[in-house]
Design a protein that fits this description.
By secondary structure, the chain is an alpha/beta fold. The chain is 19% helix and 27% strand. It has 8 helices and 28 strands. The model has no long low-confidence stretch (mean pLDDT 94).
Length: 372
């Protein structure tokens, strides 16, 4: 194998329990997003656009659809003879197979894959976040600071800080303290789950951690704190673009609707940073003479004869006469009957809404409707 400066390891095995029925049969990174994409498209596109051509995708929970979608990585220009995209399911030869015990263990079990490319650095990323980032800028920051590890960070609302790994830094952005999901956060500077490590150092910590019986084998809970305890130079890379952890129904709904905001910092129409995906071989959408559409995304194969406002319609959605859809996300192949009213709701793939039904509320929590 040719030597690589950097190899990306993409964690894509999340179950996503807080997304309920949406992740009953598919992994969280495979959930449809913004009309024509899946969540994992954003991280893979970041790799491709950043010139990182060797990506190991660590799958685990409900991997069938995700593995099929990824294929050999052609959609993201990652079908390479040397490197490219490699799917890495969990396995332990001596014990007959088991799930990865944690994020750090997932890399430990694939040390041989990383070593094949003899990288100087390893980029560890997640397949279930919505953002665009040039990882080369992150690498440059990492190199300039001669860091053992660099963590990309973003400011979050103080009331949400307890959901994240929280970081405190000095005036030079060197990390003083890291707490994983603290009940009483000391700051609102949150880890984005995007790390660059010096590989030789990380390998040592992965090997040591694997033999600690009480370890969670997790980057945030174990590896990062161990490096800080040893006083290694860890730095925080400030990120100022759009980033969303779509781990709840509310955050997934909000992120989809964010794509309709002309002032959103993530621009799906940015031709200099194209979001790649596997396209569907289906007909163009059809907008009927009685349809009314405002500020919405309407994808291929849709047939619209109702009123759509501030909503996202994935491919194959059908909306019949008299239907009124507002502030909602309709996933692939949803069928909406006549005179239906839908407000502030995610409709899961393949759901049929019968004539005359009322779904969702004008205010309050976001509803999720799925096939019975």
């Amino acid at each position: 194998m040719p030597r690589k400066q950097i190899v990306a390891m993409l964690l894509a095995g999340g179950e996503g329990k807080r997304l309920g029925q949406l992740t009953k049969w598919i992994a969280k990174p495979a959930i449809p997003f913004a009309g024509k994409y899946r969540i994992i498209d954003f991280t893979l596109s970041n790799c491709a656009n950043s010139g990182i051509d060797t990506v190991g995708v660590l799958t685990q929970y409900q991997p069938l659809l995700l593995n099929s979608y990824l294929g050999v990585g052609e959609a993201w220009d990652l079908n390479r003879k040397q490197g490219g995209l490699t799917i890495l399911p969990p396995y332990v030869q001596k014990e007959g197979g088991r799930w990865y015990k944690g994020t750090a263990n997932a890399l430990y079990e694939n040390i041989s894959f990383i070593e094949a490319y003899q990288p100087e650095h390893v980029l560890v990323i997640s397949g279930d976040h919505i953002y665009t980032m040039d990882y080369q800028k992150l690498l440059t920051f990492h190199l300039n600071n001669k860091a053992a590890a660099t963590i990309s960070v973003i400011e979050v609302p103080p009331e949400e800080a307890s959901r994240f790994g929280i970081i405190k830094t000095d005036e030079d952005s060197r990390i003083d303290n890291f707490e994983e999901k603290p009940p009483q956060p000391q700051s609102n500077l949150a880890s984005m789950g995007v790390y660059i490590f010096n590989w030789k150092l990380l390998k040592k910590y992965l090997l040591d951690d694997e033999h600690i019986e009480k370890s969670d084998h997790d980057f945030g809970k174990d590896i990062i704190p161990a490096m800080l305890q040893d006083n290694l130079p860890l730095y925080a890379y400030p990120f100022e673009g759009y980033w969303k952890d779509v781990g709840t129904i509310e955050s997934l709904w909000q992120a989809n609707l964010d794509m309709l905001d002309k002032n959103c910092r993530l621009n799906l129409n940015d031709r200099n940073w194209r979001i790649r995906s596997r396209t569907q071989n289906i007909p163009p959408h059809h907008i009927g003479s009685d349809a009314q559409i405002s500020n919405s995304l309407i994808n291929e194969g849709c047939i619209v004869n109702g009123k759509i406002s501030n909503s996202v319609l994935f491919y194959g959605v059908e909306v019949k006469e008299g239907a009124n859809i507002t502030d909602s996300v309709l996933m692939p192949d949803v069928k909406v009957g006549k005179n239906v009213s839908i407000n502030r709701t995610i409709i899961a793939e393949g759901t049929i809404i019968p004539d005359g039904a009322t779904v969702g509320q004008i205010e309050g929590s976001i509803d999720l409707i799925h096939p019975i």
